[in-house]
Amino acid sequence: MPRSPLIAPSLLSADFARLAEETARIADADWVHVDVMDAHFVPNLTLGAPVVEAIQRVSPVPLDCHLMITDPERWAPAYAELGARNVTVHAEACTGDPRAVARDLRAAGALAGLAIRPGTPLEPYVEVLRDFDTLLVMSVEPGFGGQSFIADVLSKVREARRLVDTGHLELLVEIDGGINADTIEAAAEAGVDVFVAGSAVYGADDPAVAIAALRAQAARSFPAS
Length: 225
Ligand code: DX5
Ligand code: ZN
Fold this sequence. Notes:
The protein is of the alpha/beta class. Helices cover 33% and strands 18% of the residues. Helix 3 packs parallel to helix 4 (98-107) and helix 6 (184-190) runs parallel beside helix 8. The structure holds D-xylitol-5-phosphate and zinc ion. D-xylitol-5-phosphate is lined by residues 10, 12-13, 33, 35, 66, 140, 142-147, 176-179, 196-200.
């Protein structure tokens, strides 16, 4: 079956005073990406489970929670329990085997995601990733929206795509950071399935138009299968 791109606008670039309206503006998206930051794993603080639960109640699209927090084993299952579709923890933040948290997330009914920073290699996590449903390749240093895309990470995307295409892994490859009209084609060609875009969607005059344009660009650039 041909793959189709999933577009996940990041609420980090939305107006936090109007989160319900901001999710309504991206009703055409596939997932809404929610960046949870704890001022420890990254030098920024955003929101936590009570606010994510409120977003979950009003969002027209499933939640994709990106946990940039320490001690994810302790905190991540709550996001699955509140109904998020996908919950991603950072490999660098896990204190034990990340497969334990994957099991907890799946048991709570969510997809389990593993994220790696731009400088973190993929290779040590290949076997662990057999227990995950999504791999989030960060294409900026986590912490802030509006940064420039780090194209070097595409080699990790290509390797992950190869591992999926050969059947070694069964997961969606997600990319986060600096995705816009100038960068999405390279990411799609490299093998990304899920495209997070914050400033490119919420910085546009009409987020729905931006989502449609990004989706069309990505679909055109998908390798023929
Ligand atoms: C950064 C966050 C991203 C951010 C992306 O740490 O994980 O999700 O919102 O924003 P843009 O698309 O503007 O780079
Ligand atoms: Zn993110």
